Every structure is written in C-alpha cells, then in structure tokens.
Automatic annotation (TrEMBL):
Taxonomic classification: Bacteria, Pseudomonadati, Spirochaetota, Spirochaetia, Leptospirales
Family under the similarity heading: Belongs to the hemerythrin family.
Record's keyword terms, sorted: Iron, Metal-binding, Oxygen transport, Transport
Domain Hemerythrin-like stretches: 12-140
PROSITE patterns the UniProt entry points to: HEMERYTHRINS
Domain of life from the UniProt record: Bacteria
The protein, known as: Hemerythrin-like metal-binding domain protein
Keyword Transport part of the UniProt annotation: yes
Species per Swiss-Prot/TrEMBL record: Leptospira wolbachii serovar Codice str. CDC
Length: 145
C-alpha cells in the first residue's frame, strides 16, 4: 500500500512540509521496489543500497533543519524531540550495517524480512512521529529559517 500525502501532515512550514513529502516519496519508492520484486529481491540489491543511502542523507539534512526551527522558536519539548530523531537515525544506520553483513544482499529470504522491517519502521514513523511529535511543535513556530 502506497502512503499518500494528506493535509493532516502539514506543519505549514514550507521547507519542512516539502521534506516530509520527500520522505513519502522515498517510502513509496522502497515499497514499489519490494512489491515488484518480491520473488527475486537479490536482483535489486543495488536499488536497495541506494534507497537506504538516500534515506540516510535525507534524515541528516531534514532533522538538522527541523531542530534549528524548533530551537529558534524555543520549542519546550526540543530535547525529547531530538531524542526521537536520534533513535530514528540509529535505526537507519543499523539497517545500513545489516545490509553490509554476511550474504544478506544475495539471500532472497533474508532480504524479504529486511524489506518488511524497513517498510514497517518507516510507515510507523509517518503516523507516530510526523502526526504526533512534528504536529506538536506546529503552534510554537513563529519564525522559520
Ligand atoms: Fe521531527
């Protein structure tokens, strides 16, 4: 199932909303690769590696901007929010490391489990983090960057 952007995700900070839209695209891209290659995922190992690297780059630049905006607006739950970001970053790094271990990239069964974990994790982030923690700072933002 493809994740659809909806106005309920809007923070009304244009830079952050466009980055969140990009995350939707990255997730949908991963899901499409998975759905279309379910029976021979090892043939798509390069695409998977690229997708995880793109997620890592996205994460670093997006969190930096979000954290700067929250700081600039003296958002009171900044520290807890940064902790959530750090956990997400750790998970992405962990996934990236798993890809480099053993024969994962050539094993269809292990890749299937890997893809399912990755997709579940990303989907949970959309509903648990963007719809909760990110919307929580929305009323505090008076200045953008
Ligand atoms: Fe956030």
């Amino acid at each position: 199932m493809i994740a659809h952007w909806d106005s309920k995700y809007e923070t009304n900070i244009s830079e952050i909303d466009s980055q969140h839209k990009k995350l939707f695209r990255l997730i949908n891209n991963i899901e499409t690769v998975y759905e279309e290659n379910k029976h021979h995922l090892s043939g798509k190992s390069k695409v998977l590696l690229d997708a995880v690297s793109e997620l890592e780059d996205y994460t670093l630049s997006h969190f930096l901007i979000e954290e700067r905006v929250m700081e600039l607006n003296q958002y009171p739950n900044l520290e807890a929010h940064i902790n959530q970001h750090n956990k997400f970053t750790d998970k992405i790094l962990d996934l990236k490391n798993r890809l480099g271990q053993g024969n994962l990239l050539s094993n269809d069964e292990l890749l299937d489990t890997f893809f399912k974990d990755l997709i579940d994790f990303l989907r949970a982030w959309l509903t648990n983090h963007i719809l909760k923690e990110d919307l929580d700072y929305k009323p505090f933002i008076k200045f953008s960057i």
